[in-house]
Amino acid sequence: MEPEHVAKICGYASATFYFLVDLPQIYLNFRTKSTEGFSSLAVCLRMIGNSFNFALCFAEKRSLELIFPSLILFVVHLIQIFQFVWTRRAKPYLIFYSIPVVAFLVVFLIPSSNFITRYFNSASQVICSVPYFYACIRIRSTLGISLFGLHLNFTASILGILMCMINCQPDNVIWMFYFISVMYSVIGFGLAFAYDEYRIFDSASKHSKKDVLRLEPI
């Protein structure tokens, strides 16, 4: 099999896993009817970064295997914002639905800014990890986040790195995205081990038994 075909397989496999990454978190939120222990600020920051990345995919005419995971993450963030509105009865979160519109306008109307905006996605991945994991550290529990989702994220990131290696991907921004995603998962695993909560699959019943999760969410 030609290397380019292997790279495409890795790319589409990575995209498929990215499609699944946030579904466990969305399911956990719906199952527990709660977003406690799950940071809304982290989701909003990720949405900003991915909105610009999604717009740049079209502006730079990137390949489908790079556009697809960005599209999936884009849709997922829209759903997660809705969950915060639903579980916290907080309509102000709806304003974040305007972020994608702003991103597309900036990318296409001010193309000279793209050399900066193309780093927004990687930067948001780093910055959003602070409130994401702080929410866990504050209540000393990882039961509010989906560890199964982090396992899927880890797998998707490794496949993405393999795709870049085989393709000899010259774009450092794409490399950064996958490496940061790996570290994101590793930190989550570390916290789960520290709180003696490491698991492959998530449990809504354990989530409901944790009194500490009744704290006001971030």
Task: Offer a few descriptive terms.
single chain; 218 residues; mainly alpha; 10 helices; disordered C terminus
Provide an overview of this structure.
The protein is 73% helix and 0% strand. The chain has helices at 3-21, 23-32, 40-59, 64-88, 99-109, 114-117, 120-139, 147-167, 172-194, 204-209. The radius of gyration is 17 Å and the shape is globular. It has one domain. It starts with a helix and ends in a 9-residue tail after the last helix. Residues 211-218 have low confidence and may be disordered. By secondary structure, it is mostly helical.
> How many structural domains in the coordinates?
1
Number of helices: 10
The low-pLDDT segments are 211-218
Q: What does the oligomeric state look like here?
A: single chain
**Helix amount:** over 70%
Q: Which radius of gyration do the C-alpha atoms yield?
A: 17 Å
Topology, element by element:
Layout: H1 3-21, H2 23-32, H3 40-59, H4 64-88, H5 99-109, H6 114-117, H7 120-139, H8 147-167, H9 172-194, H10 204-209
Subcellular location: Membrane
Membrane topology: Multi-pass membrane protein
GO molecular function: L-cystine transmembrane transporter activity
Structure, briefly:
With 218 residues, the protein is mostly helical. Helices cover 73% and strands 0% of the residues. Residues 211-218 have low confidence and may be disordered.
